[in-house]
Design brief:
The protein has 300 residues and is an all-alpha fold. It is built from 12 helices and no strands.
């Protein structure tokens, strides 16, 4: 009887992972479709110098209106993980607004990843599944958390990242071996379905493996300089992040004005530096296909 229950639970985790992979694939495909229409097809019909600024501004206002109606969602990734860890569940009462709130900024060119919105969506859906299906009560307490690991492993094209990342945040140490198996089964099922759908439709979605680098004729001074530049830019990011939060604090709750300002800034940055726009899941293919032409530094 115990073997039968374990087998049923394993098959259930395969199904759970497959559902996560399907949702992630559909979400990223929808994101890419919206980006291609808004930033690929329409600019070919409209020859307007300030197209990027106008579209980003309109997108910011639209997002502000949406948030004014449905609240400041989605939460960031850390907030979602913290909620699931504390309560073993995530609210699914506003799944549709959450989906729209997650995908709108991505379509309008924001340089953010889809993982925060996706983890909230899948954690909410898995909580709903756990509420409706009362079998495996103890295991279903972990269902939302398993959904997060499957999402991270699939979005970042690294099953091991999805498995290890939540464990690193566990204060009580590694989970039991049985829980490890559930995590692995769900992650591999999600990742497998995601890859299968990509190949079935001959499409590219999500992050892609760049492959093994061939290191020849290394320019060590240049490498050191680029490492230093990367460190400096990371601090610039953290400083600008803190400054922007401080500047926008007086506008707390005024989503329309915040959206308009954010859209305007994004539009100006996107006009001057187009590669600053869009998520890495979308931009990675542009960089891979045109990497030879996108030479930033050449060392002779």
């Amino acid at each position: 009887m115990e073997f039968k229950n374990n087998l049923l639970l394993t098959l259930y985790m395969v199904l759970v992972g497959a559902v996560a992979g399907l949702i992630i694939w559909c979400f990223i495909r929808g994101m890419n479709f919206g980006i291609n229409i808004l930033w690929g097809y329409l600019p070919g019909l409209i020859d307007f110098k300030y197209y990027t600024i106008v579209v980003c501004l309109a997108g910011g206002i639209l997002i502000g209106l949406w948030k004014s109606r449905y609240g400041d969602i989605p939460e960031d990734l850390n907030a979602v993980i913290s909620t699931v860890k504390e309560h073993h569940r995530y609210s699914y009462s506003n799944i549709f607004p959450l989906i729209v709130s997650s995908i709108l900024p991505l379509i309008f060119g924001a340089s953010i990843g889809p993982e925060a919105g996706l983890t909230g969506i899948i954690a909410g859906l898995y909580t709903w599944m756990g509420d409706k299906l009362k079998i495996f009560n103890e295991e279903l307490e972990e269902l939302a958390h398993i959904g997060i690991t499957a999402t991270l492993g699939t979005v970042f094209a690294s099953p091991m990242f999805g498995f290890v990342e939540p464990i690193e945040n566990e204060q009580s140490g590694l989970p039991e071996s049985s829980k490890n198996i559930l995590y692995f089964v769900a992650i591999l099922s999600s990742f497998g379905i995601f890859i299968f759908l990509n190949r079935l439709t001959h499409n590219q979605a999500g992050l892609h493996s760049i492959g093994t680098a061939a290191l020849t004729n290394l320019n060590y001074p240049g490498i050191i300089l680029l490492i230093a530049l990367g460190i400096i830019l990371s601090y610039v990011y953290f400083i600008s992040h803190k400054m922007s939060k401080k500047l926008f604090t007086p506008l707390e709750g005024n989503f329309i004005l915040k959206g308009a300002i954010g859209g305007l800034v994004l539009g100006i940055c996107g006009t001057l530096l187009p590669l600053t726009m869009f998520s890495g899941e979308h931009q990675i293919y542009l960089l891979m296909d045109s990497g030879v032409q996108l030479v930033l530094l050449r060392w002779s």
